[in-house]
Amino acid sequence: MPRSTLTTISVEQLAHALGENLAEEGTPEAAQALVALPKADVHCHALLNCPLSSYEAVLGHKLPPPPAYFRDFGEFGGYLAANLFPAIRSIDAIRALLRAGLERSAAEGVRYLEASIDLLLPMHVRASAEDLFAVIAEEKERIAPRLLFAPEIGINRRVPPERLWPLFESFVGSGVFSSIDLYDDERAGRLREFVRFYGCARDRGLLLKAHAGETCQVDRVRETLDVLEVDVLQHGIAVAEDARLLGELARRGTQLNLCPTSNIALGVAASYEDHAIHALLAAGVNVALGTDDYTLFGASLCDEIRQLRRCGMSLEDLARIRLAPPAR
Description:
The longest helix has 17 residues, at 91-107. The chain has helices at residues 11-17, 28-36, 52-59, 73-84, 91-107, 121-125, 129-143, 161-173, 195-203, 218-228, 243-252, 260-265, 277-282, 294-297, 301-310, 315-318, and strands spanning 39-45, 110-118, 148-156, 179-183, 207-212, 232-235, 255-258, 286-289. The chain has one domain (11-318): Metal-dependent hydrolases (TIM Barrel, Alpha-Beta Barrel), CATH 3.20.20.140. It has an eight-stranded parallel β-sheet. It is 45% helix and 15% strand.
C-alpha cells in the first residue's frame, strides 16, 4: 500500500459532531454524530485494541480491571504479563482478539486504522509466519467494506536484532504490511542496529515509525530522527520541551501520533489541559491521534476528541489535528 496522507475535519463538521450547534453535547444524538464522522486511528497495537471482555472470552474467566493510573511502566508490563498474555496462545486466539479490535474500531466510526502486529507473535504461539499472515489478510479483507486496515510490523527494541531479522524479512516480503514501528522501552537498544530494518522497509515503500519522546528525553528523539529517518514519531511529546526541535519538526512535516489518555494513565502527562498536544499544535507540528491500548485504557477515538474539547481546546485547534482518513 502506498503511503497515505491523513486529512483534517472542518470546524463546522466538528461542531455538528460534538453537538455544539444544537446544544446537544452529551446526548445520544451528539454521541451518534461523532461516531458517524469518519475518523483515522494511527497509533494502536492490534491485539490490545479490543475490549477487556474479548480477553475474558478467550480465557474463559473474568479478569481484574486495569488500574486507572499505572504507577510506572513496570506495573503496566506486569498487568499485561499476568492477565493478557496468557490469552495469546494460538492462531485462533489471535484471530479472535484481532477481529474484536477491528469490529470495535469500525463501530466507533474509524475508517482507517494503523495497528501493529508484533514480529514475535508466530514464535509466541508456535505457528508459522505464513499462518499469521493469512489471518491478517483474511481479517483485512473481511473488514474492508467498513474499515481500511493498514497492518504494521511491530519491532521490540529489547530483543536482539539478529534474532528478529529473519522474521522481519518474511514479514516485509509478505506484502501484508504498510508500515513499521520500533517500540517498548524507548531508552533500550542501540538504534544503529535497526538501520537495516528501516532501510529495507523504506525500499519496500513502507511508512517508517518509531516510539520516541514518551519515556525518553529529547536527545533520544533527535537520535531517532537522525539515525532511523522516520516519517512519524509515535508519542513524541518530549519535543514540546525543545523549541528548536519543535520548529524543525514543523519544517520537516514530521507527524506525531499522540495518545493523550494513554500518556495520562502512564504518568507521562499530568492532564488533558497540560498535555503537550497544545504546544505541538501551536508550533505548527503535524499531529494525529491514536488509542494506543484500548484494552487497558478504555478510551476510544471519540473519547479522545471529546476530552480534548472539554479541556478547553478550541474547535479551530481540533480542526488542525489530522483526524480524518486519507483521501482515496
